[in-house]
Amino acid sequence: MDSREFAKTLEKQVSDFCKSLDGKLPAYSYIPLTLDETRIKVMQSRLFNEIRAGEIFGGWLKSTLELDVKKILAAAVHEEYVHAGFLETALQSRGAIPYDYKPLPAQMAMFNAFEGLTDTVERIAAFPMAGEGVADYLIAKSLNSGTVPSWVTEPYQRIHQDEAEHGNYPFEILVKYATTPEKQERAARAVAMSLLLRKQYFDDLDRWVFEGKSY
Ligand SMILES: [Fe+2]
Ligand SMILES: [Fe+2]
Q1: Distance 20 CA to ligand 2 centre (A)
Q2: From the CA of 53, how far away is ligand 1's center (Å)?
Q3: Is the pLDDT confidence value at 215 over 90?
Q4: 14 C-alpha vs ligand 2 centroid, how far in Å?
Q5: Fewer CB atoms < 10 Å away: N or C end of the chain?
Q6: For 108-140, what is each residue's pLDDT tens digit?
Q7: How many CB atoms lie under 10 A from the CB of residue 147?
Q8: 14 C-alpha vs ligand 1 centroid, how far in Å?
């Protein structure tokens, strides 16, 4: 398949997944939450994600042979720790200890799975395209909902702005590099894996936030 057509099929897969969340938004989106106590839990979980994202992007650097992608990943590492700083400040403003948090099982699995990917197109498809695509979809929703308090939306406004400035770089990387049936097959499977694990992470987070289930 032409690589641009292929990249469009992956984008459609991600946007279908996003729409499937609309009926019952996860705690991750902050929208169903009514107490700061629960918002703090979600933000702590998402702060862990920023730290882990930087680790994953940094860990991929040496084995990323495409210099243009390597540079993008290097900038992304720094950006994730800037995001972490925004969330730390917001949590501290509510009297919470930012890193008083233990990762949920599916959250660990999701990042460990990203870390294990070896090919540039599958990495970019799984994490920046599918993973961060879903995250940013829900950030946009929370910013527009009008019911999420400003101590939560303020840091995400800045995070959302960073994501917007990148344009659609995962799509362009796939157009450039997902040029063989083998690469396309691996990228498609990596997206499916990413979405499956994200759904499980959202479910784990819901159980912890709403039912207090910890592991
Ligand atoms: Fe990011
Ligand atoms: Fe981030």
Answers
A1: 23
A2: 7
A3: no
A4: 18
A5: C
A6: 999 999 999 999 999 999 999 999 999 999 999
A7: 10
A8: 16
